[in-house]
Amino acid sequence: MKLLLMNGPNLNMLGVREPAIYGHDTLASIEDMVRLRAAELGVELDCFQSNHEGALVDKIHEAHTAYDGIIYNPGAHTHYSYALRDAVSSVSTPVVEVHISDVDAREPFRAISVFDGVVLEKISGRGKQGYVDALELLVKQLSDSSDGGC
Ligand code: DQA
Q: Which residues are identified as catalytic?
């Protein structure tokens, strides 16, 4: 099983960016934490971050053949990028949406996600643990669906 951990705009600034909201961990340390859990589960994990919508669209298209699932924090794209929503619905690769902060408890615009209905699940407000929870959920889902049956 091979998964992609993908982060959108401004998430490269974790550790510096509004620590009262997003915590003090850097993106690199969060990626290391998720990689460690992935290794324990016997899963391969690649990490990708971009501030550019087109690069993220391209990566989702690539995931169609390269990955079994995506853990995705779309950052502010969550609230307005129909291009990224369409990219997610263009591929059959399951996606779990992650937000470090509780987007429903912040400014009203953050409660809107264009990914509603095209992601497997949305995990919000669990801090960095949300990424690990998303990994475990995807692994369980993918293992269950490969269990066979008719
Ligand atoms: C975020 C929440 C978004 O509203 C914001 O634009 C981000 C980060 C989160 O992880 O809590 O960049 O996705």
A: 22, 99
DSSP state for residue 24 in the 8-state scheme:
S
Does ligand 1 come within 6 angstroms of the Cβ of 123? no
pLDDT digits (tens, 9 = 90+) for 110-146: 999 999 999 999 999 999 999 999 999 999 999 998 8
Torsion of CA 64, 65, 66, 69, to 10 degrees: 40
How far, in Å, from the CA of 37 to the mean position of ligand 1?
23
Distance CA 130, CA 128 (A): 5
Tell me the angle at which helices 82-90 and 53-66 cross, rounded to the nearest 10 degrees: 10
pTM of the model: 0.96
Which tokens in the block code for residue 137? 């959920």
